[in-house]
Amino acid sequence: MAPTHTVILTSSTMSLRLIPSIHRATHQISLYLDRSEGIGVTQAEAHILAHLAANGESTVADLHRAFGHKRSTLTSIIDRLVARDLVTRDVSETDRRSFVVSLTRRGRALAAAVLERLVALERRALAGVPREAVTALLAALARVEEAATTTSGEA
Prior knowledge:
6 helices; about 60% helix; globular; three-stranded antiparallel sheet; Arc Repressor Mutant, subunit A
């Protein structure tokens, strides 16, 4: 049974139904990765590594589209991974304005472990959940993302 959480409301607030759950789930994924022996990277770094393990080398633009980080944030994450010899960042051979991020040999081993743990977590989380419910959840999350990116924060 899923945990229930209560959001305390005042007369001037509306009920928050999705945002607290999304925040808690995201935080729990971070804690899960922290507890995973041998990982030792931040959640943002782990997601970049898992993406590269699953999709192969990617441009910085590809990573930006996949995760939606601000460019400066993404650059900082990649800088840390480069400094730890987990990825390389090279000028694209086909577009000198673009950079391609690739796993190093050391990075491939860690990225595979991260991807394996995230896949296992997702499988556990979705075990027994009907396909239609997963489809509805993904649609709702896409709408939250779209609403957050197409508005200027006004109520």
